[in-house]
Each structure stands twice: as structure tokens, then as C-alpha cells.
Request: fold
Amino acid sequence: TSHWVIIYGYTGGQTLSAENFLIRDPASTGRTTLAQYLKLYPSYVKLVHYNG
Reply:
């Protein structure tokens, strides 16, 4: 099955880090950062970028 999250914000500085990307995860309200998501799901199939 597919599992999607939305990255909606970034709280860090110049150096990008997964801990600083804020996510919305419909499967878990407790997972709020990209680092938390990648710890459980280290592999991904697709990355979609929307700039609108």
C-alpha cells in the first residue's frame, strides 16, 4: 500500500536536515518531522514536488 506524507514547513537554517522538515502524516499525528518518518520508512518510491 502507499503511504504519503506532506512536507509543509522547515524550521532550520542554511544546512538542510530531515529533523527540521515539518510533515503531516495521516497515519500518525505523533510523527511531525521528516526524520521521524524516515526512521520508520527509510526507503521511498516516489517524491512529488508541487510549487503552486
Summary: Residues 18 and 34 are 5 Å apart (CA to CA). The beta strands are 6-10, 21-24. The first helix runs from residue 34 to 40. Residues 6-40 form one domain.
